[in-house]
Amino acid sequence: MHLAADLLKKQFPSEIVEVVEFRGDTTVVVKPERIRDICRFLRDDPTVAFKYLSMIAGLDYFPESPRFAVVYNLYSHQNHDRLTLKAYLASATAPAIDSVTSVWATADWHEREAYDLMGIRFKGHPNLKRILLPEDWKGHPLRKEYPQRGDQDAATWVNRRIDAKK
Amino acid sequence: MEPVKPIPQTETMVLNVGPQHPSTHGVLRVVVELDGEVMVRAEPDIGYLHRGIEKMCEGRTYHKCLPLMNRVDYLSGEVNNFGFCLAVEKLLGIEVPKRAQYIRVILAEFTRIASHIFWLGTHGHDLGAMTPLFYGFREREKIMDLCEMVSGGRMFPLYFRIGGLAADLPEGFIEKAWEFVKEFPEKWKDYDTLLTENEIWKQRTIGVGVMSAEEALNWGWSGPMARGSGVDWDLRRDNPYSSYEDFDFEVPLGTKEGDTYSRYLVRMQEMLQSNRIIRQALEKLPPGDIKVDDPRVSLPPKEKVYTDIASLINHFKLIQEGLKPPKGEVYQAIEAPKGELGFYIISDGTAQPFRVKIRAPSFVVLNATNKLATGRLLADLIAIIGTMDIVLADVDR
């Protein structure tokens, strides 16, 4: 088993839900409440030293429950290996998790993107606003109930813009 | 007599750079707050080129995602497909034949040279050096011709397939590739003499956009950006994929300062190293198949489709339904010209991906604009955007 997974099990026994191995990738499913502590521990522990956050992705498992999840992919330059952290969020209507911007500066835009496209709130993020879409856009396109062809939403947005200018 | 007006308070001024500006390399808007000529804050405003590629993938079969991936970072089209194909192959648990791996490496390294040449040309042009653009595009044109030979497309060759390649290398490709590989180091000297010891170039780049190694990791920098700060990390060497372990190459590192000039030196050396890898790949290119022999993934040969009913059905099912990877999720990262390009793919067992997340290097690097720009002169912003080597299609996806 992955070294970091063992360490996490020792350090946060009540937080680890399961460890999944697939095609050489290790995914540790954790509870969302103490995500910031877990991330900080993985960054500062000298044996694993995950000093680098590759990406954060928001997931939507609609219509299953729990519906939303957040995935963190970490890389260690010391051991040249990766670890994926995955946290399922309890709420299907107002999904939220602690921000890890204080652990890795690069989390800033990743979290803003997940907020913008998936509608997940990151508590404690210094500047949580839309990043790719216009600020007055309605809805979160990567959610499963959002239509593949969003022509209608785009058209109403353009119309709103034109009306605002009049 | 009129009262004497009080001396005006010095206020900061907000200036919009872009979105339509040659030095923003696409449609990037940077909101800059200026105190005199010094930047107090520089906040990029992105999303002008957002096409929703991640969403579009969810409604298509895996093969139909490939043309979209070409367009993520349009200056290194084939490298994006490289990463996506590797990720899906990892999901399927297959490995493509050695010959296909080598050909992929050749194409990927050619693309890296082309992308770096484009960076050199535009970066130089932004800072007032016109000639590198003309010199560089001479060689870039030859690489575009090579891409055109394999598939007909120049910017977007669309030559890689899940499980291998669309076809074997065409006649005459090897000779033309050798021609390029042999003459490139000489041509490279042209670029080197133009800028490396150029006093104006040095004054514009040394000490601009400084990032320490530790901070570079904190900000998620990878590829030449991190190596320019002295982070000794290259995914081709440290987590080899597609037979990169067979090749002997160095990972150039920048100076300790981690400034724009340092990153310039790194990218310049990388071009030569790429050339070295292509040379070895051409020398050692093994014979054999160019796609996996697996009916779940690869189309059967055309003559068999016409004569054998099983092959006909197989062909029909693959085209109509698409390949179906098992349930699971993988992350595959490759060393793209701009840094770590990652694909996080979740399969729910159907023919369409459940979720595709693209970890784009430009998006991550641009996040640090404010940190690099604060306290510098406005003119340095152009150097900083240039050294990031961003492509806005890669940022916005």
From TrEMBL, chain A:
Keyword Translocase in annotation: yes
Domain called NADH:ubiquinone oxidoreductase 30kDa subunit: residue spans: 28-151
Classification lineage: Bacteria, Pseudomonadati, Thermodesulfobacteriota, Desulfobaccia, Desulfobaccales
Underlying gene: nuoC
Protein name: NADH-quinone oxidoreductase subunit C
Function (record text): NDH-1 shuttles electrons from NADH, via FMN and iron-sulfur (Fe-S) centers, to quinones in the respiratory chain. The immediate electron acceptor for the enzyme in this species is believed to be ubiquinone. Couples the redox reaction to proton translocation (for every two electrons transferred, four hydrogen ions are translocated across the cytoplasmic membrane), and thus conserves the redox energy in a proton gradient.
Gene Ontology molecular function, alphabetical: NADH dehydrogenase (quinone) (non-electrogenic) activity; NADH dehydrogenase (ubiquinone) activity; quinone binding
Similarity comment: Belongs to the complex I 30 kDa subunit family.
Enzyme class: translocase
InterPro entries: NADH_DH_suC, NADH_quin_OxRdtase_su_C/D-like, NADH_UbQ_OxRdtase_30kDa_su, NADH_UbQ_OxRdtase_CS
Membrane topology recorded in Swiss-Prot or TrEMBL: Peripheral membrane protein
Catalytic activity: a quinone + NADH + 5 H(+)(in) = a quinol + NAD(+) + 4 H(+)(out)
Subunit structure: NDH-1 is composed of 14 different subunits. Subunits NuoB, C, D, E, F, and G constitute the peripheral sector of the complex.
Compartments it resides in: Cell membrane
Species: Desulfobacca acetoxidans
Keywords: Cell membrane, Membrane, NAD, Quinone, Translocase, Transport, Ubiquinone
GO cellular component entries: plasma membrane
EC number: 7.1.1.-
